[in-house]
Structure to design on (206 residues):
């Protein structure tokens, strides 16, 4: 049975919550986890790199010297790849690096990532996370109180004050339940989640 302490914003224990074993105590599938991370990174790539091939480089229409009798190697164009200013062999061209994963694979990867965090004692559950106004200092203080300064903060609803308070803190990112992914969970040291967000995660990903 997966259990976690429930903390308040001062870092004090105010209760305990039972976490779903199917999400926070699942079998970790490293292969699926690797696929999910590779997909996340691949989908971020712009793929706009472009270099000229020998067919696209300007000039080089004339044969530089006759085929035989000069003692030099035969050449057909000064824009061949071996020449300075020549085209590039197998030049990179704009392409789409993204690929898809099945929903079941994505869900399994997410459960593996959450389980890995739980096993490392890096899941911090807050009873609530609310601010009267956006204030970076307040958010930094909360994270320091619970001992999670490099964190992915997951909230149930898009609380603007929480998002704006965390926006300027280095190594801290906010996310809603529907946007969490294995890459971000593994990237950040701590997984900070509100009690209501835990219930939503168990409802959506069970």
């Amino acid at each position: 049975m997966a259990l976690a302490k429930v903390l308040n914003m001062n870092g004090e224990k105010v209760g305990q919550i039972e976490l779903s074993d199917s999400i926070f105590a699942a079998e970790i599938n490293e292969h699926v986890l690797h696929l999910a991370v590779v997909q996340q990174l691949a989908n971020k790539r712009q793929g706009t790199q472009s270099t000229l091939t020998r067919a696209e480089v300007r000039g080089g229409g004339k044969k530089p010297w006759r085929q035989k009798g000069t003692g030099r190697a035969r050449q057909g164009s000064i824009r061949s790849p071996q020449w300075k200013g020549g085209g590039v062999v197998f030049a990179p061209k704009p392409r789409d690096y993204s690929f898809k994963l099945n929903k079941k694979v994505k869900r399994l990867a997410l459960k593996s990532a959450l389980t890995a965090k739980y096993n490392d004692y890096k899941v911090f559950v807050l009873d609530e996370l609310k601010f009267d106004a956006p204030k970076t200092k307040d958010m930094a203080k909360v994270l320091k109180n619970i001992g999670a300064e490099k964190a992915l903060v997951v909230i149930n609803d898009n609380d603007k004050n929480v998002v704006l308070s965390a926006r300027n803190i280095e190594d801290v990112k906010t996310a809603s339940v529907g946007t969490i992914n294995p890459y971000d969970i593994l990237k950040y040291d701590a997984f900070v989640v509100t009690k209501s967000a835990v219930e939503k995660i168990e409802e959506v990903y069970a």
Observations:
- Helices lie at 21-24, 30-44, 103-119, 136-146, 160-167, 182-187, 195-205.
- The beta strands are 2-7, 13-19, 123-126, 151-155, 172-176, 190-194.
- The longest helix spans residues 103-119.
- The mean pLDDT is 94.
